[in-house]
Specification:
Length: 339
């Protein structure tokens, strides 16, 4: 292919159906580059075979910041999506018409009305914690940094092994990771290293039978030095293991007389959330034939970390017919790509 001098992205389609395509990216290096690339691949790399509103918004590069979904007694559904446009064109008539046309194509005659309005900062302040988030939930689901035990209400990816070695390279620390594959695995590794201001020089990635992954990464600190401090090694290893065991938290809880699904994922230090979480949630519930009465997305500071929390109030008539553990497991599998 030759040496690439300019910033460029080359996509080579697979020769045969079922074989992987190859994407070559040539650009200046920076701390967190791997995380940013993996986030983009996670965003666009899903095999979507059915459509709904959240998929359409994501395909239009509209980021969902907050959602309010409610059903009136006569069966009419009102969806309020608080979104930002990565193209910064949603204020234009052309962009609004493009959005409406895409939604109309997938919903057909179901849309009664459609409107796009700019909202004020008092509405877009999604990071304020909800007064209805129970303290017990935050302790049980999100505060696992204070304990070596994983919460009983959350599902996990088992058999994660992280080791570090400074003897195999004169300039780099080798991080070896063995774990089960899941959707966004590389993204979860890269975002963790990005948050720790760690640079990756090169690495190897293998997927074996049973979706077992072996990953070797040659890394250095931002100052170009190895990680030799045992406490820093331990902290990074523990965080990587925790993030790969539980990249998201899933639980079904009681909210008074109602049933609520809670899904949360950590927010990057750059304030970016995990892509397509809401889409996977709605698709999993759709496959379970469980209706959504209302939904809300907001960000919460829990401990010293910011979390993006999806709160979905399930339709009482449908949710009672499915065991809560079943809902948790199906949503978890969809989010992890194990469906």
């Amino acid at each position: 292919m030759g040496f690439l001098h300019d910033d460029v992205v080359i996509i080579r389609q697979a020769d045969k159906e079922g074989e992987p395509s190859v994407i070559t990216v040539n650009c200046p290096d920076k701390t967190g580059l791997g995380c940013d690339l993996c986030r983009i691949l996670l965003f666009f790399g899903l095999n979507i075979v059915r459509g709904d509103v959240t998929q359409v918004l994501c395909s239009l590069e509209l980021n969902i910041k907050k959602v309010k979904v409610s059903t009136t007694p006569d069966g009419t559904v009102m969806d309020l999506f608080f979104i930002t446009d990565t193209r910064e064109l949603l204020h234009t008539k052309i962009r609004q018409e493009e959005t409406y046309k895409a939604l109309e194509d997938v919903t057909q005659d179901a849309i009664i009305s459609f409107n796009v309005e700019k909202v004020g900062p008092e509405i877009t302040a999604c990071s304020q914690a909800s007064p209805f988030l129970p303290p017990a939930i935050t302790e049980d689901i999100f505060n696992i940094e204070t304990s070596n035990d994983l919460p009983s209400v959350s599902l996990t990816s088992n058999n994660v092994c992280v080791t570090m070695d400074n003897s195999l390279s004169p300039a780099h620390t080798l991080v070896q990771i063995v774990c089960q594959d899941h959707k966004g695995l590389l993204y979860d590794i890269m975002r963790t290293l990005k948050d720790y201001n760690i640079q990756i020089s090169y690495g190897r990635f293998y997927i074996k039978q049973g979706k077992k992954c072996e990953i070797d990464l040659f890394i250095m600190q931002a100052d170009g030095k190895k990680i030799v401090d045992p406490s820093k090694q331990s902290a990074l290893s523990s965080r990587l293991k925790m993030e790969l065991q539980q990249p998201l938290r899933v639980a079904v809880v009681s909210r008074g007389p109602d049933t609520e699904l809670l899904v949360a994922n950590p927010v990057e230090l750059s304030s970016k959330g995990r892509p397509l979480v809401f889409y996977d949630i709605t698709l999993a519930l759709k496959m379970l034939n469980t209706c959504i009465f209302s939904a809300e997305i907001a960000r919460h500071m829990i401990g010293d970390r910011e979390w993006e929390v999806y709160r979905v109030l399930l339709d009482e008539g449908d949710s009672l017919s499915i065991p809560r553990r079943k809902v948790e497991e199906e949503v978890w599998k969809r989010l992890m790509g194990w469906e």
